[in-house]
Design a protein that fits this description.
517 residues; mainly alpha; Alpha-Beta Plaits; 2 domains; two-stranded antiparallel ribbon; two-stranded antiparallel sheet; 9% strand
């Protein structure tokens, strides 16, 4: 019994060690946690796949092959979050017999492998939309960024108000500015999906629509260490089946579907006779559910071939529709302004899953998740929005924390010379032209001297942009007083460029005589 409790306790401990820092990293609005804590995010499988992190990918697959789907119960924050939902749902119901009893269901191999095939193929052809919608880590990130983080910030503001009444100013008000309507809707939908599927069928999400779970199941079905029955001592009490959140245990036939088992060890702890054990076992001796698995593999291969044959046609049709839509409008809309390090718009669309970790960690809060204004293939991905602030000149936080490599890590030297866009000046909107008043705020806030003032009328000067020096940081746009349309706006570069750093002016030494008046 001690050994069985040890397995479950170890799993719970590992889950806490992974989940709590990741959750705090998302909701940490005051940036108490160091940016180095983002290393935990690099253990997520979908970001590793999109980022081409071969070593990490091989490690995760070997982990599943040796120990089973440990990833789903310890490393994946969405998996641990589902366990928390299940635990909360069980509060107050333990004494009611049969209040929370799972039962064995046949695997939905056709569904999960078809979704996996479609997800992989669309990603290969440059559309990461399904990765964005189905990736468990990214969905948890959106929930944490758009729901949990605002709640923590509201709680901070409420507590700050209470403390101020007793003349305690240790806390201060913070502004919630990174949550958008689209992000809020996406986070709410993801949360509801997790809650509903967990309440009704436990780990149904992980074993049906999650591409990471489907991918790991291919390896875990042949895992060396697995849960198996000792048929001689089993009393067919059914406790193991009723506690299996993955619905993978058939207590009647004494079989365990290792492709769906997430190694939570609830079944092992519930077995009074010790008939269930997690032990080394050769893959050839494992499963009595072989016919169902064989049918699942056949469905996977057949559907994959069908999707592969039809995808180019669907892609061409989708492309054609997009062109017609643009032609009907008769004008070309500016593309989104992508973060420094994203290299190009197309590359960023392919690799970003919209997890929003860069959004919540941005010190100046200029990154905002989008809706459908830039098309389906850019939905929920971040863009630079210079509404009330700008991209700090030497800041590289977003590139440091990105787990998928969508934002390539930059040195400070590279950051200060990366041109994400070019400031475009609209003379007809500027107050110097319309009201003949001095301004020059844009030139004062330009860190590269790309925006400078030139003679206009009489003593008035008006802004002028040098595109060879501009990096598109938005210092000029964010400070421009003109509303509703600002007089200077950063036009995005579809492919980022590099500029030379501005030359520092030489400071002449002046000898001061007498008192220097």
């Amino acid at each position: 019994m001690k050994k069985r409790n040890y397995l479950k306790g170890l799993r719970v401990l590992l889950a806490i060690l992974f989940f709590v820092p990741i959750l705090l990293f998302f909701v940490d609005f005051s940036r108490v946690l160091p940016d180095s804590a983002h290393r935990l995010l690099h253990l997520q499988l979908m970001p590793a796949l999109l980022g081409g992190m071969v070593g990490l990918i091989v490690f995760q697959f070997l982990l599943a092959l040796v120990f089973g789907r440990i990833y789903c119960s310890t490393i994946c924050p969405a998996g641990v979050f589902q366990d928390i939902i299940n635990r909360l749902f069980c509060i107050g119901k333990k004494k009611k017999k049969g209040s929370r009893r799972f039962s064995y269901h046949k695997p939905q191999n056709r569904l999960r492998y078809v979704l996996l095939a479609i997800t992989v193929l669309t990603a290969v052809f440059g559309f990461s939309g399904l990765c964005l919608l189905l990736d468990p880590y990214s969905n948890f990130g959106r929930i944490a960024a758009s729901l949990f983080r605002p709640v923590v910030m509201w709680g901070n503001n409420l507590l700050a108000d209470l403390l101020m009444k007793v003349d305690n100013y240790s806390l201060f008000h913070v502004t919630i500015s990174t949550v958008t309507v689209s992000g809020l809707i996406a986070a709410t939908v993801a949360l509801l999906v997790f809650i509903i599927m967990t309440i009704f069928r436990g780990r149904l999400f992980c074993n049906t629509i999650c591409p990471v779970g489907a991918m790991l199941s291919i390896f875990s079905r042949y895992s060396f260490f697995r849960i198996s029955f000792d048929k001689e001592t089993c009393t067919h009490c059914g406790n193991c089946e009723h506690t299996c959140k993955a619905e993978a245990i058939d207590s009647k036939n004494l079989t365990v579907d290792t492709s769906r088992c997430v190694d939570c060890f609830n079944c092992v702890s519930s077995c009074a006779k010790g008939s269930l054990q997690y032990r080394l076992q050769l893959p050839t001796t494992s499963s009595s559910a072989q016919p169902a698995e064989t049918n699942g593999r056949r469905a996977f291969l057949a559907t994959g071939a069908t999707v592969a044959a039809s995808l180019p046609i669907a892609s061409a049709i989708a492309g054609g529709k997009g062109e017609k839509k643009m032609n009907r409008k008769g004008r070309k809309k500016w593309p989104p302004l992508t973060p420094p390090g994203s290299i190009s718009l197309e590359r960023f669309k392919d690799k970003c899953t919209g997890c929003q970790i860069c959004v919540v960690r941005c010190p100046s809060q200029v990154l905002r998740p989008t809706g459908l204004e830039y098309g389906l293939d850019y939905m929920l991905k971040p863009r630079l929005a210079y509404i009330s602030s700008y991209c700090n000149y030497e800041c590289t936080v977003c590139s440091d924390v990105c787990p998928t490599g969508a934002i390539k890590p930059l040195t400070v030297e590279e950051k200060t010379t990366t041109q994400v866009g070019i400031a475009t000046f609209f003379k007809s909107r500027c107050v110097v032209n319309t009201e003949e008043k001095d301004c020059g705020a844009c030139a004062e806030h330009c860190p590269t001297q790309a925006v400078h003032m030139v003679p206009y009328k009489g003593t008035l000067t008006i802004p002028q942009v040098n595109p060879d020096l501009c990096i598109g940081c938005g210092g000029c746009e964010s400070i421009c007083p003109v509303r509703p349309m600002r007089a200077i706006i950063v036009k995005p570069n579809v492919e980022h460029k590099f500029v030379e750093r501005p030359k520092e002016e030489e400071v002449k030494e002046v000898e001061v005589d007498d008192f220097g008046f």
